[in-house]
Amino acid sequence: MTVLSVNVNKVAVLRNSRGGAEPSVLAAAEAALRAGAGGITVHPRPDQRHIRPDDVLGLAGLVAGRAEYNLEGNPFAPPRPGYPGFLALVAAVRPQQATLVPDGDGQLTSDHGFDLARDAGRLRPLVAELKALGTRVSLFMDAGAPGLELAAALGADRIELYTGPYAEAHAAGDAHAALAQCAKTAHEAQALGLGVNAGHDLSQANLGDFLRGVPGCWRFRSAMR
After folding, report:
1. End-to-end alpha-carbon separation of the chain, Å?
2. Which of the residues are catalytic?
3. What is the pLDDT of residues 77-116, one digit of tens each?
4. Where are the domains of the chain?
5. Which one of 13, 117, 137, 144 is least enclosed by Cβ atoms within 10 Å?
6. CATH entry 3.40.50.300 includes domain 3-223
7. Confidence class of residue 221 from pLDDT cuts 50, 70 and 90?
8. Dihedrals φ, ψ of 68, to 5°?
């Protein structure tokens, strides 16, 4: 069964832009869980532009025993004042899943997956450390990315397909090629024993076509707006 994990980053963006504590990230996550969401996703960035480390800790308590907690982040980003580092946050809250994303500080949002030919050596010890914490590891990957066998060799459990290009193509009225690329990559991952998640700009308008075109997707991620 495919599970919805709701990303509450945008609620934190609005809160931070206003100052204070409203709208509440915890209240938004609670509303999503009460509505039947199977998980909560957050992506704490080093610049703390939206989700902050204290949100990560508070949400862990809210979600515990009720749904899956998915922490996204760049494992290569070093700690800095106010941000202890991605692995330290995972160690503190032990989420069910850690999704590793190669986003830099200057990116407005995650917009590409890992280049495993370049990044595998750096990822290997980090994946091992995360799995030693009892956390499932998923790697953010582009549809059509080569070298998925490296993801399996690193010890990753899943990949997450970056679905931004599919969502754009769907909105433009012709998603056939983008959907076929997602399906091909998902099939390759599944043949290697990797689970498949999906996320970025998935919505009520495009999700049905995606799930019909990419069978066997475990989990999809959508933002609360």
Report:
1. 24
2. 43, 72, 200
3. 999 999 999 999 999 999 999 999 998 666 556 667 999 9
4. 3-223
5. 117
6. no
7. confident
8. -85, 140
